[in-house]
Amino acid sequence: AMAAERGLAMATCTAPVNIAVIKYWGKRDTDLILPINSSLSVTLHQDQLKTTTTAAASRDFTEDRLWLNGKEADVGHPRVQACLREVRRLARKRRGGGEDAAALSLSYKIHIASENDFPTAAGLASSAAGYACLVSALARLYGLEEELSEVARRGSGSACRSMFGGFVQWQRGERPDGTDSLALQVAPETHWPELRVLVLVVSGEKKPVGSTAGMQTSVETSPLLKHRAEVVVPERLAQMMQHIQDRDFEGFGQLAMRDSNQFHATCLDTFPPIFYLTDVSRHIIALAHRYNAHHGHTKVAYTFDAGPNAVIFALADTVAEFVEVLRRCFPPATNGDQFVRGLPVGSAALSPELAAAVVTEP
Amino acid sequence: AMAAERGLAMATCTAPVNIAVIKYWGKRDTDLILPINSSLSVTLHQDQLKTTTTAAASRDFTEDRLWLNGKEADVGHPRVQACLREVRRLARKRRGGGEDAAALSLSYKIHIASENDFPTAAGLASSAAGYACLVSALARLYGLEEELSEVARRGSGSACRSMFGGFVQWQRGERPDGTDSLALQVAPETHWPELRVLVLVVSGEKKPVGSTAGMQTSVETSPLLKHRAEVVVPERLAQMMQHIQDRDFEGFGQLAMRDSNQFHATCLDTFPPIFYLTDVSRHIIALAHRYNAHHGHTKVAYTFDAGPNAVIFALADTVAEFVEVLRRCFPPATNGDQFVRGLPVGSAALSPELAAAVVTEP
């Protein structure tokens, strides 16, 4: 308020990355960003991966401007504009048309700076955290308190899921105007505290085909995607909610792996085909299956978004052993001490049987 | 006949490889080898890739024996036994129960030797040519003249398609006993003499998951395969027959690529997922799309069976240029003069525009 009185206001927010376990791929409305199927994700802790965005408004600013990771970017991007327009529209509505002299003027230009602490556009859902963060920062700037997943969705579909922690469903919705295509928290993070997420960065490079273009080509050309959206996902969504409800890692992990594979299958069924998985991704998949087979049940589950990087779900008691398996299969070379970041991982010795059954040539 | 009188008879046959453009993947009856969908293939000339099988019967042989590529193999394999049993049953039926003294005794033991002039079990349909050849050699040995695709099918499903040249449909059939699950020639090879096939051997290694086990796992676990078999393939089969009828390479090539991709998509939708394509396969796919994009229409079409090796369809006037593109993208190293085998390929210079647009780092 002090700042606003002097004609300057600032707000800073952070937003988390979310990892879909029932995948979103394909829009039924590309302008409003309405999906062809519902999806379900796990929101990661912000301690490790997050976006931080600061939005400032001032009567002294002469134009809207945007910086991403320290580099100026195009504030005129239609999706950034859609978020700005929607937040301002809601702010205007809230003030009921009457101009509150003390409130921040909606006509002030804004400056926005956003930073990720992880590689951008490498299939790590950076746009989800980015747009969720943008919308949250703008909402705070303008003093909005309502649920804004519908606005975040206009930036990037999966951004709506990053507006909540824990387990989040983005429901497809039925209305053509998208007002029922919202994120809903299925369970808070406290519901399943033992669940851990490992992000295996195979490559920090930009992906060859962006999600927006890729999913549109898939919608237009893949007969399997249509069947997945209409028939397979509704069944899987109900199953996944039940597995989360029951904290059933066997069911959760199996279905997460199947759904990741099916998403990549529809990319391959796209024409021309889209490949996000590389030979390294495939080695991680095979490793996870060998590891689970050795233990006789599902101890780790992989999922891959639109890129080669693996996300591994496991329960807390499995992490140290599986990280040791990863170290043995993919020995750190030059980047030794950078191999593991994040929460401290205990050390674990592998039994000779486990090593023999699971570890292959680096 | 001379040999038969002395108690020894021999017959030698060759059989061709066939390459499916509408793929077979999945059985509805694993014993009778009845497929979940019809398929359609192009039979290759035998000048380049073939199997040669000699079958001999003698009263002096004390047991049935089998050699594959010079190494003795298990003649008791259920599929070899199924072919032997069916051929003998037909021979017995033909003789009407009455034993012809001059005819080769059906009770003689047989020796069979089979050779491929290409890598076995590397996704080059070696079992198709192998079982087609086995059945043909046995039929000649026993003097059978009828159409035997139904018997070849009992050895390996796709073997029934290698019983004909040109363009061949293996119709799914409806009967539980499989008597209508037969191969039919759609058009003879003379119908489209300009069509050429290039086999790009990415790896001669054995595939990690055999077709028989792989397709069974797919039938049990892939929801997308079920949809493909029931809904997608019937439409595509009719389209492909029309493209062949019209000698429409654009339509033929596009659909062949889409169907290859969809088959591999269903492998990825299998649980645990099956990967036959490698990073090298993917580079060939991307190269084909760049090459076609440069020319503005479909000049080459890829298809991949259950392995990383690519089969490329092209019309005769495209082969020299595309082979030159391949030479530039995958320069022959140690195996220089073995790089191209088969029909003579003329030399072609690449235009700078083509080279710039299509050739990437080796």
TrEMBL record, chains A, B:
Domain Diphosphomevalonate decarboxylase-like N-terminal: 15-183
Catalytic activity: (R)-5-diphosphomevalonate + ATP = isopentenyl diphosphate + ADP + phosphate + CO2
Gene3D superfamilies assigned: 3.30.230.10, GHMP kinase, C-terminal domain
Residues spanning the signal sequence: none
GO-annotated cellular components: cytosol
GO biological process: cholesterol biosynthetic process; isopentenyl diphosphate biosynthetic process, mevalonate pathway
Pathway(s) served: Steroid biosynthesis; cholesterol biosynthesis
PANTHER family per UniProt: DIPHOSPHOMEVALONATE DECARBOXYLASE (PTHR10977:SF3)
Record-given protein name: Diphosphomevalonate decarboxylase
Superkingdom: Eukaryota
Similarity field: Belongs to the diphosphomevalonate decarboxylase family.
Start and end residues of each Mvd1 C-terminal domain: 197-359
Function recorded in the entry: Catalyzes the ATP dependent decarboxylation of (R)-5-diphosphomevalonate to form isopentenyl diphosphate (IPP). Functions in the mevalonate (MVA) pathway leading to isopentenyl diphosphate (IPP), a key precursor for the biosynthesis of isoprenoids and sterol synthesis.
Keyword Lipid metabolism: yes
Annotated keywords: ATP-binding, Cholesterol biosynthesis, Cholesterol metabolism, Lipid biosynthesis, Lipid metabolism, Lyase, Nucleotide-binding, Steroid biosynthesis, Steroid metabolism, Sterol biosynthesis, Sterol metabolism
EC number: 4.1.1.33
